[in-house]
Specification:
By secondary structure, the protein is α/β, with parallel strands linked by helices. The protein has six helices and nine strands; from the N terminus they run βααβαβαβαβββββα. It has helices spanning 18-21, 26-34, 55-59, 77-88, 103-109, 204-216, and strands at 2-8, 39-45, 63-67, 92-96, 116-128, 142-152, 162-169, 174-183, 186-191. A nine-stranded mixed beta sheet has the order 2-1-3-4-9-8-7-5-6. It is globular, with a radius of gyration of 19 Å. The chain starts with a strand and ends in a 26-residue tail after the last helix. Bound molecules: zinc ion (ZN). Zinc ion binds at residues 97-98, 149, 195.
Length: 242
């Protein structure tokens, strides 16, 4: 079983129009949409103690999903530091939509994570850039979302990101809408669709991408620890001066 935790800010859903689209919250819609026999899914939200991300939950999480927008600053630096350390030790991290500006995404990547945006309900066309990547298994070469928020280049991410999806928006902009990274032992995937006023997390392709990304981001469990050990030589070294 893959132990998945879906973290959601869960603020927009308290009021309309988002309340009607996601009555139980974006996290519950995603949980329902990706439900499968190999996934054990828990949810955590901002207003729980420790934002729901206790040591016990983080230690027992293989892959963490992150959706946030209006309350990035309300996330405690202490929790961000714990999540970051856990990713470096192998936990997968999937950052969704406006999570591009979350403390945890910025902490993992070390750059602004800034982008251009426009919210006018335009069409988005996603293109698979890497058809051999496990994240796009079962996904058509291209698919559309009738209405999405435009996120446009330049996107302030480091250039070691591997592009899985590119998007075109009706207004003419383009965006690296699916990008993978590795930090320490942890795999990271950023996926752009998911503006809260659109029913994006009911889209069959979007849900399939998220499910695929979870299975891709599972820790490799090689037993390696990034703990900076002093080590003995593996080849004999003659004493100095001989
Ligand atoms: Zn948005």
């Amino acid at each position: 079983m893959i132990r998945v935790t879906i973290w959601n800010e869960f603020r927009h859903e308290q009021t309309e129009p988002v309340k009607s689209i996601y009555p139980q919250g974006i996290h519950e819609a995603i949980a329902k949409g990706i439900a499968a026999e190999d996934l054990e899914i828990r949810c955590a939200t901002l207003d729980e103690p420790e934002h729901g991300l206790t040591d016990e939950l983080l230690e027992s999480t293989d892959v963490l999903l992150w959706w946030g927008h209006i309350a990035h600053k309300a996330v405690s630096d202490e929790v961000v530091a714990k999540v970051r350390a856990r990713v470096l030790r192998g936990m997968g991290l999937i950052v969704l939509h406006s999570g591009h500006y979350s403390k945890i995404f910025q902490a993992m990547l070390g750059t602004s994570c800034s982008l251009r945006w426009r919210q006018v309900a335009e069409k988005e066309r996603l293109w698979v850039v890497d058809p051999s990547h496990p994240i796009v298994k079962g996904i058509p070469q291209t698919f559309t979302l009738e209405h999405e928020e435009m996120y446009g280049e330049p996107f302030g991410i480091p250039d070691d990101g591997k592009i899985v999806f590119m998007s075109w928006f009706q207004g003419g902009d383009v965006f690296r809408s699916g990008v993978t990274f590795q930090r320490g032992s942890g795999k990271i995937f950023y996926f752009q669709p998911g503006h809260e006023t659109f029913p994006t997390y009911y889209d069959v392709n979007v849900l399939k991408v998220i499910g695929n990304a979870i299975r891709w981001a599972v820790p490799a469990d090689t037993g390696f620890a990034w703990d900076c050990p002093r080590c003995e030589p593996v080849e004999p070294i003659p004493p100095a001066g001989e």
